[in-house]
Every structure is written in C-alpha cells, then in structure tokens.
Specification:
Elements lengths: L4 H6 L1 H4 L1 H12 L5 H23 L14 H16 L1
C-alpha cells in the first residue's frame, strides 16, 4: 500500500507541522523521494515513539545503537545484543 499524503499530514501532531510539510513536498516531487521520507519517518516518528513506549514500560525492549548505514555491522550489533540479553 503506497504512503499517502493524507497519512503523512495525519502525523503532523507527532512529527511537527514543519516535518510533515517537508515530507509532503518530498512525496509530491517527480519521482517521489520515498527513501528520504522513509528515513525521516524512522528517525522523527518511529524512534521517538519507541523511546516513549520504552519509558512507559520497564521491560518494553532494548535499544541498540545502529548509527551507520553498514547493514552487516548493524546486524552484528543486533546479534551481539540479543546474545548478551538472552544468554
């Protein structure tokens, strides 16, 4: 299901109007800049929502910093964290 402009506008309360407007602009470009919108959603919405939920529930989950774009390195970090937590 494609991301709609209405869905992004609907997140403006959580993202802030400026961020939502910027993402709408990216989606209306030809071709739409979907990867940039996805990146912004992950950083500005999902990361914040995850952190918020984590503060509400002591056993909600664990965070693993994956700063770089190296998928293999990030996978290694996730596996290491998993092994440390569940071993």
């Amino acid at each position: 299901m494609p991301l709609s402009l209405g869905q992004v506008r609907g997140l403006s309360k959580r993202l802030g109007q400026k961020h939502a407007d910027e993402m709408v602009d990216l989606l209306t470009e030809v071709p739409p800049r979907l990867s940039e919108v996805a990146s912004r959603l992950l950083i500005n919405y999902y990361d914040d929502m995850y952190n918020y939920q984590a503060t509400k529930r002591p056993n909600f989950g664990h965070s693993v910093e994956c700063d770089g774009g190296d998928a293999l390195e990030n996978a290694k970090r996730l596996l290491k964290a998993y092994e440390e937590h569940y071993s």
